[in-house]
Amino acid sequence: MAANYTIPALTEDPDLRETPELTPGAMGHLKPFVAAPAHQEALGFPGTLVDGWEEKAVARLGELLGKYRSLQVYLDACVKCGACTDKCHYFLGTGDPKNMPVARQDLLRSVYRRHFTPMGKMFPRLVGAKELDRAMLDDWYSYYHQCSQCRRCSVFCPYGIDTAEISMAARDIMDHIGLGQKYCNEIIGKVHKIGNNLGLPEPALADTLEGLEEDVKDDTGHDVRFPLDVEGADVLLVTPSADFFAEPHVDGLIGYAKVFHQAGVSWTLSSHASEAANFAMFIGSYEQMHIIANRIRQAAIDLKVKRIVFGECGHAWRVAYSFLNTLAGPWDFLDPKYPVPQHILEFTRDLIRNGGIRLDREANTGMTLTFHDSCNVARASRMGDFEGGQFVIPREVIKASVPKFVDMHPDTIHDKTFCCGGGGGLLTDDLIELRVKGAQPRVSALKQVVEREGVTHMAAICAICKSQFTKVLPSYGLDMEMVVSVHQLVSKAIRLGGND
Amino acid sequence: MSVLFALLYYTAAAVFAAGLAYKIHRYATVPAPLKIPTTPAPLTRTGVAFRLAREVGLFESLFRADKLLWALAVLFHLGLLLVALRHLRYVVEPLWFWIVWVQPFGVYGGLAMLAGLTGLLVRRFVIPRIRYITGPSDILMLLLLLGIGVSGFAMSAVARTDIVAVKQFFLGLMVADIRPLPADGFLLLHLFLVAVLAIVFPFSKLLHAPGVFFSPTRNQVDDARERRHVAAWARPLDQQR
Ligand code: SF4
Ligand code: SF4
């Protein structure tokens, strides 16, 4: 299928990244599919745009202002300095000025000023206060669904203003007046009904896992197990459902299983909580996020596990690391020796360090790796017990598994990492134009190390990143198979045996 | 005229204090229901205090974002700080030794402030991205501050003002005694603009000053796995499970 949009040119030298020309309205046409009434009502939202939505939206904004300090402070504090304006990958890839973080915020801020500030009530034009009318609502729907909530802007803002907080609030308001996004809301419904984003029921999951056991047996000769709903296991593994079959995700799952096997730690998946993702974060719904998070608590109680480990997933790790204790804790019934939850990379890295597993780099001969820091891991969570562990630990595991590792341009890694372009509930085909364009900054940096350093593969630790790159890399002339899971590398490198 | 300005200053002080107190109270009482520090973030309260200090004192994030903007912002804010310290001599009697010591720096501060403001203003017109996000109030705010700076300098450079009398006026205000204010054009303009600034402060983007201390992405400790962080409004949800 030929694209009916232009794929942006890659930046040759990211040191000299030029900001694109402003092209007002360039992306105004792009809107994700609207949620059907059934998707909306399953989450307790009105099915279609309600009567009097203008007032109801303002009322909901008022409620949120009293519930979220971030929203209240951020709507006031912006000085329009513009430090954030060239930091968003969607602006860099599209040139649409409404994709500059501050301009994106202003869509909500202008309504806030009109209804909640004395200046906006008295001198609306002077302070850019605006009514919420249909045109504004359309802009909200477009541009709050062109934010992947990656928080890159918040790194650079002198007040830490996080546009993700604003876009979450805007999506919550739109849900409450009956204008939800199909992709997110349909998926959240599936999690409630079936237990995971992909709608994979228990028998199918059991089948898949059995198939994996056979594959690994054929491949390695070892009886590596993929247990499901095993009561009394030590570890409950919660992983994104893409890990159950999509490439390259599933190779990562095989890696986790081999690590558990070799370490001799008993573990299990849960069919009740067969999904690490929590898309409720994307729509800014605390209530939905709470329900989804507590599936994991229930599974941990039912299966009588001692610890919880999360598989490779970006936003899921944010919800797990930063919110799970708040949403679903306290975890006093688990083994206090381990943090709750743990990341699979923390788990594997500890084993590498204390000799619990042994890795053989030669198994990955010919590979030169680079690493994509996923935004939610890099800027919204941590690994390990030191600041910045989320940057060090994945690299340590990769370096232990492959012969050569090269980092991308320093302005595009660690907390300055560029989003893959598909995060925040935008990983849907109806937004493919945005996804391709938004990947431009990351792909530019990738291409640079491919050409100059001979990088052959890029590892990622997020289901969304992996799916997104697999889909968009071909648009830029790169091979989709160069995207790998970190535990796929571990899976190849790990030496099995000696404890069967 | 003295009575008018006395009233203006009492009003300005009242609006400034009440408006700011209201806003700060609001920022402090609206809960932050989730841990959202922009990571890597400090693991301890002390670490957070240092992070905020670097943000407020050195504009750390801005430095990473945009060096030119950072330089202009530092010029302006540091200049403003020196000017403000210099102006303490109008309200403190007897003078503390360091106020005397800081006087000459206050003048450089004033120049730095004007240079910074001019740069910030030019930026708003010549960089298309910045022009796009600039509204009338953003320009007016810069003009207001420039007006204050220029009228201030004019008092010493163009038409000298009897600053001893000015000081008496302000010391008088503090004891509810309205003393005569020299009727100089520049002085009155200067004082008027400062009063306007104080009045709009709690209703404008100047709220970035208190706001930065309440920004959850900057003021939270990274300890989410160790400590629960449940907001009062979220507690009933825990009972439902
Ligand atoms: S960097 Fe922060 S204060 Fe500056 S324009 Fe962007 S959001 Fe506003
Ligand atoms: S959170 Fe990310 S996607 Fe959203 S405005 Fe900021 S930089 Fe852009």
What can you tell me about this protein's structure?
The complex is a heterodimer of chains A (500) and B (241). Chain A has 500 residues and is mostly helical. Chain A has helices at residues 37-42, 53-67, 69-77, 89-94, 101-116, 118-122, 134-143, 152-156, 163-176, 182-193, 202-220, 249-263, 286-302, 314-328, 344-353, 375-380, 389-401, 432-438, 440-453, 463-472, 486-493, and strands at residues 235-238, 267-268, 307-310, 342-343, 368-372, 404-405, 457-460, 483-485. Chain A folds into two domains: 46-179, Fumarate Reductase Iron-sulfur Protein, Chain B, domain 2 (Orthogonal Bundle), CATH 1.10.1060; 190-493, no CATH class. Chain A is built from 21 helices and eight strands. Chain A has a four-stranded parallel β-sheet. A four-stranded parallel β-sheet of chain A has the order 6-5-7-8, sandwiched between helices. The longest helix of chain A has 19 residues, at 202-220. The interface between A and B is large, with 75 and 64 residues. The structure holds iron/sulfur cluster (SF4) (2 copies). One iron/sulfur cluster binds at residues 78-84, 101-102, 157-159, 161 of chain A.
